[in-house]
Amino acid sequence: MSSSSAISRINTLNKHLTTSHFKNQGGETIKISPEVSEALSNGRAVVALESTIISHGMPYPQNLATAREVEEIIRDNGAVPATIAILDGTPCIGLTSKELKKLAILGTRARKTSRRDIAHLVATKGNGATTVSATMIFASMAGIHIFVTGGVGGVHRHGENTMDVSSDLTELGRTPVTVVSAGVKSILDIPRTLEYLETQGVCVAAYKTNEFPAFFTETSGCQAPCRVDTPEECARLIDANLQLDLKTGILLAVPIPKEHSTSGSLIESAIQRALKEAREKGITGNAETPFLLSRVNELTGGASLTSNIALVKNNARIGAQVAVSLAQLHT
Ligand code: PSU
Ligand code: MN
Hints:
The chain has helices at 3-16, 34-41, 52-55, 62-76, 97-106, 118-123, 132-142, 159-162, 167-172, 190-199, 231-243, 264-281, 288-299, 303-329, and strands at residues 21-23, 29-32, 46-49, 80-87, 90-93, 111-113, 128-130, 146-148, 178-181, 203-207, 226-228, 250-253. With 331 residues, the chain is of the alpha/beta class.
């Protein structure tokens, strides 16, 4: 879907609606905040944000403070933030301050929601925190092309046996949204994750580096398939992907800022220990990533959380700049 067709569709939808709801192509109601709706109608830069990072990725109250600060950074850089979640069964694009707080307090009581979970959650009117895959789906429905997060899911270590491959990767292969992340954590198998992204036809671009970053560290030992050096260059890449209607997503990997990557070796030993504990406790499936994230945070005495917050904010700044450049290409 090109940006102009998405915007004109939302314009048409808005003409018929007095509230800030729209129906997707199948007729299911989706709530879109007035601020996001207006920004899309006017062709302004909009950046989507996921909510699993709030509910399952960080503890309360740092999760709420970070979510609010990230939205602020996006605004300060000239774009409109659109945090996405499912509340009482309604997919919401753009949360009010109250809704954001509700989600942050719910924490892991909100369901971690990937593509497979969406229909059940809507049907049962539950509360869902969207992962990268589910957030991409709703961003794409609304015509939002850029989405900022911390890290994406990947092929888990020993994934060749367990087949635990995050649905984030298959979503990137089928939904034309650009995900800005700090790469993939070394709790995962990074070389296999890159192989799988190639299989899925996903364009993986590293920002101002030749190497694919490993979330807490700038390096992973893996080359990135391509490189972009400015927000404008990245906007042209996204535009080409949309204009050609390739229908696949883009993964923009932004390395953690140097001053926050120092504790990399400390984090690596914590990761090794957390992985061992996960195996001993038999933690698998979609519980594995949240377990590893919180255990690594405990084992590093909070150092990993500090790095995590710093890199998400950095991604928000760059993601907003890319979104502004993309909006300028279309004006
Ligand atoms: N990686 C992180 N932080 C996160 C996640 C992954 O460093 O918060 C979350 C994201 O929401 C991502 C999801 O989409 O975990 C992937 O989960 P799984 O590995 O179960 O597919
Ligand atoms: Mn999984």
